[in-house]
Amino acid sequence: MSAGVTDEKVFRLDGLKWLLVALLVSGAVYGNYYFSAEPLLYRVLGLLLAGVLVAVVALQTEKGDAFWGLIKGARTEASRVVWPNRQERNQTTLVVVGFILLMALLLWGLDALFGWLASFVIG
User: Is there a contact between 109 and 101 (Cβ–Cβ < 8 Å)?
Assistant: First the structure.
């Protein structure tokens, strides 16, 4: 058994990668401003391309790798959730809508009562 072998990834030059991310974002913002006379479609495509490049560079960093691990863990947990069936979903929705209507009527009644009291006091 080799004691020196680990499964940890080595992240080098993270500071330079984050600087590159900042420069890419700044360049995308400036390019969007500079090419403001061009059609919107071209500018959106340029921003999307810049966003993909930023994501690729950012995911190569330690924090980017941790974020990607968080996303994978969230997807795993979401697949483990027992989602309600159609009947449960519809019943819960009806209960929520009914409660909202009840509270709206209650607040409307209180508003009318306070309005009547204010007009009674003011004269």
Answer: no
Instruction: Give the burial string for 9-19 (b: 16+ CB within 10 Å, else e).
Output: eeeeeeeebee
Same structural domain, 46 and 16: yes
Give 50-101 pLDDT, tens digit per residue.
Answer: 999 999 999 999 999 999 999 999 999 999 999 999 999 999 999 999 999 9
Q: Do 54 and 21 meet the contact criterion of CB atoms below 8 Å apart?
A: yes
Residue among 47, 67, 46 at smallest CA distance from 58: 67
112 and 104 Cβ atoms separated by less than 8 Å: no
Number of domains in the chain: 2
Domain match, 12 and 60 both = yes
- Domain that includes residue 111, residue range: 87-123
**Helices (H), ranges, 14-85:** 14-34, 40-58, 62-80
The C-alpha atoms of residue 23 and residue 58 are separated, in whole angstroms, by 12
Statement: the pTM of the whole predicted model exceeds 0.70:
no
Cβ-count burial of 61 within 10 angstroms (0-12 exposed, 13-18 middle, 19+ buried)? buried
